[in-house]
Structures are given as structure tokens and as C-alpha cells.
Amino acid sequence: MKIVVGMLLGWQFAAELLTLDEYLMYIPCMAKNLSLTPVERDFFKTVAQAAFTNPFSQTRIELDRSIAGTDADMSWDELVELATARIDERLAQLRKTGRDDLTRYGAEDRDLLRTAFLFDIYHRYRQLFDEFILKQQAAGDTPVPLRFARELLSKISALGMNETESQRYLGIFYQIRRAFYFIETALTGLSPSMNALRLQLWNNIFTCNINWYERHLWNRMEDFSTLLLGETGTGKGAAAAAIGRSGFIPFNDRKGCFTESFTRNFIAINLSQYPESLLESELFGHKKGAFTGAIENHEGIFSRCTPHGSIFLDEIGDVSIPVQIKLLQVLQERTFAPVGSHERLRFHGRVIAATNRSLEDLRRTGQFRDDFYYRLCSDIITVPPLRQRIQEEPRELEALIGSILQRMIGEAAVPYARLVREAVARDTGTNYPWGGNVRELEQAVRRIIITRHYRGDVNSAPAGQLDRLAAGIEAGSMDAQALLADYCALLYRRFGTYEEVARRTKLDRRTVKKYVLMVIGEEQKDGE
After folding, report:
1. Helix, strand, coil percent content, the chain, rounded in steps of 5
2. Counting beta carbons within 10 angstroms of the beta carbon of residue 180, is it exposed (0 to 12), middle (13 to 18) or buried (19 or more)?
3. What distances in angstroms separate CA 162 from CA 125, 155, 219, one per listed residue?
4. Cβ atoms of residues 350 and 310 within 8 Å
5. Would you identify the CATH topology of the domain 236-382?
6. What are 383-441's pLDDT values in tens digits?
7. Is 377 within 8 Å of 227 (Cβ atoms)?
8. What does DSSP assign to residue 286?
9. pTM for this predicted structure
10. Cα-Cα-Cα-Cα dihedral sign, residues 9, 14, 20, 23
11. Using CA atoms, how far apart are residues 14 and 23, in angstroms rounded to an integer?
12. Are 198 and 181 in contact (CB under 8 A)?
């Protein structure tokens, strides 16, 4: 039953009609201080937990389900939409009953509501941020104006934030959206190990508690170096780029844009491609006349790195001890000097390093300094090999092929996906080890588009088996039976069936099986 609140209370908005329940909720507004009901407090506590929880975690999914009030099977995007709609309903109710003034709540309720309002504002602008990221990506290193900045800043400042705080939250909103975008789009995969990788990358950017990051660390992440480990071709570069392009970038209110483009905030260098005589110049720069051929000043990557940027040092395991010492000094003192100069320059960025070599072995043999290692390893992330991902989730290969084709040819990729999947299954079999990992798969997709076939890389077979076969052939120590047995076992590991091996070797299936079991039996004896 409706009652006319204005008529009962003599207020100026006599025309507004509220239900009796809404009227009872309205009564606290007459007091100086406001407080949330127990039900509201529990709801907004769940919202605050969701706001500070890694979006790639199972915990976040469960929190979103709780907010949305559903157990229905749906995509995460659909779940987030439903959850944010529920939050918006609750906040609209507070506005309708005049209980949205945060200054009238106690500290705990005020913090919960502030988080909920910020969460709501962020999700209202998700799509606009996504469109802006694509515009900035297309524009390159020139910062693009943020057309909706005034509107968004106005909504943030309405929560009681001053100008500096409002601009900082705008920067954090933009950073959160970039991080989600680059982690999700650059690191495709359905396997548990890829889910774990995405979760680790998010924590690397925002720490394991984004509340800590937002309060204390958003402008101090240069002190946290990252070491990426993994086989060649696994995607360490993509992981590094996701971190490097997701750093905090301040907003320039006067110019109406962010101070830098995220495309300029990430600088990568492959350390193994330079001779040592030139590597220091590429890293630290040099002064004119510093050495023969230095005909002008050269700015190294540490000089070019922006204050909130990141430098990616790929193949860090290949650098010499003298270069390690100089890099260690940069990490410890945050300063460096160009070759041929005594001037110390300040480095403000963050360092990400990667290697496919065993640092444990390199440290044991004295080729990699322990003190340098301990300066690099604030966080260590291992990128999983493709064979592990496929073993965990058979659909992984299909998802990756779709993603690779999408990047190559866009929406026209769908008809090609089936062709590529069938060719991979036909030509490589189910147990192909993909020694070149995702990089090999990308080339396999290209070769299939050109030739309709990908026979695989013989070097993708297990290293021990290939080494043994090659060594036996080189030494002339293998008889015909041993040679044929090892070759049959190699093909069986690649294609997975005796029938396929028999077809390729033109041997009887029973003979193939005998040879394969003979090799496997010998390997098991060696492993005992």
C-alpha cells in the first residue's frame, strides 16, 4: 500500500510516493548519522571482497555469484553483468531514500559504501575504457584524449574525493581495465596452468591484495622486479608485455589525456642478439666519442623508459658477468651512467627479465651471480609448456588455433579453424610434444594455410631419444633392428597409434608394436 510521505511529514517533495517498507527505511535520514542495516552491511561487505579479489580467481567467481544471487551456469561476463545490476539496484535504493551521503556514516559503513560506489562507477565505464584502449593502441605512442574523463571525474569526486584523489582513481580504473584486457587477450588458454598464469600476472601487477596496492603501492612498483621462466616459445614475451603495458599512468587534467601511451611504457630488448661490445651501449646509451664509431650521443633503453614504464630484458641468462654487475647496480641504486660519461642518470621504471635456461645450473657453475638473481626475483613466474597445457585440457589446442587465426585474419577465421584442426590432428597425432611450444603452433597454422599440411618438427621429439638415435647413427654403433626400433618409438610418441606408425614405415602393425614395446621396456629399465 502506498503512502504520501510528503503529506505525513510536511516535506517539500509531497508528490513522491513510497511503499511502507521504503518509508521505514527513510526514517534514519531524519537523524544526523546514518548506518547500514545488517543485511545491507553483509551485502556490501561481499561487494568489497569482490572489488579487491583477483578477477581470474575462482574466489572472485563465487563472490560474484553471491552478489548476483544465482547458481545458474553462465559466462563470467554475464555473471558480472548480473552482479553489477544487483549492486546498482542496492545503490539506487540508497539514493531513493536519501541515504547516499557517505559523510553521515561511520567509518566502517562509509568505507564499504565508497568501495561499492567506486565498483559501480568502474563497471559503468568498462566498455568505454575498452574502446579507448583500442584507440590508444591504434594511435601508438601519442596519448589520445579521454573524452569521458570530465564525466567520470565528476562521479568520483561526488563521493567526497578531492581533485588529486579523483584523478588517481581514474588512473587506477584505466590500469585495471588494461591489465584485464592484456592478460585475457594475450594469454589464451583453458587449461588450469594457464588460469594459474593469468592469476599470477594480475597479482604481479596489483599484488595479492589490490587494496594494499591502491592505498600504498600504486606509485612504488618500480621496486618489484619480475623473473619469467619457461621453455622457448611458451609466451614469456606476451606475459612480459601484459605486465609492462598495465602499469599505472597518471592522468593530465590540463591536457585531458594520460601522460603517456601504454605502447611507449613497455620497452623490450633481446640481450642475446647484441655482441657484448654493443650491449652496454644499447642498455645505458653512450656519449659521442666514447668508442670508435660513436659519432653522436645515443640514448639507451634505461634512458628511454618512462617513469611508470617497464623494461623487458629477454634472455637474461645469456649475459656476461660484467653486464650482470652493471645491471645489478641499476637495480640496487636506481642509477646508471652512459658509456663514456660520469653523469649518473636516474632510472624510474620496472624491470622484467626472462630466460629459457636453467638459472639453477648457471648459478651452480658461476655463470649467473647470486646477488643479481636475488635482485631480480621479487616475483618468479613460470610460463607452462604447450604439451602440459594440452595434457591438462584437450580443448587447449583448439582454443589456441582459434586465437591465432583470429589475430591473423580476424572474423574470417572461422572457416579456416576446422581445416587447421583437422590437419594438425591428421599430421601430428595426439602425442606430438610441440617442442617449439606456442611459437611452433603459430608457424604450423601458417604452413597449413599455405600447404594444408604440417608434418611436425623432428626436433620436437623427446630430447633423450633423439640424442640417443643421433649419437648411435654418428658412431655407427646401432644395428638395423635397434635403429628401426628407436625410429618406430619416435613415431609412436608423435602420432599415438601403431596403425599410423605402420602406415608410415610400411611395416606390419605387430612388428611396429614389438619394436615400440622393446624401446619402452629398455627406457623403463634405465629409469629404475
Report:
1. 60, 10, 30
2. buried
3. 20, 12, 18
4. yes
5. Rossmann fold (3.40.50)
6. 999 989 998 998 999 999 999 998 888 877 778 888 999 999 888 877 788 889 999 99
7. yes
8. B
9. 0.81
10. negative
11. 13
12. no
Distance from C-alpha of 129 to C-alpha of 139, rounded to nearest angstrom? 15
C-alpha cell at 433: 610434444
Task: Tell me: pLDDT of 18 over 80.
Answer: no
Contact between 346 and 335 under an 8 Å Cβ cutoff? The reply is yes
DSSP sequence for 68-116: HT------HHHHHHHHHHHHHHHHHHHHHTT---GGGB-HHHHHHHHHH
Lowest mean pLDDT among 31-35, 197-201, 203-207: 31-35
Task: Name the residue ranges covered by the structural domains of the chain.
Answer: 1-30, 33-205, 236-382, 386-459, 462-527
Residue with cell 500500500: 1
Residue 63: closest CA among 78, 46, 41: 46
Cell 503529506: give the residue.
Answer: 7
Task: Encode 176-235 in three state secondary structure.
Answer: HHHHHHHHHHHCCCCCHHHHHHHHHHHHHHHCCCHHHHHHHHCCCHHHCCEEEECCCCCC
240 and 312 Cβ atoms separated by less than 8 Å: yes
pLDDT digit string, tens, across residues 473-518: 877 778 888 889 888 888 887 766 788 889 889 999 899 999 888 8
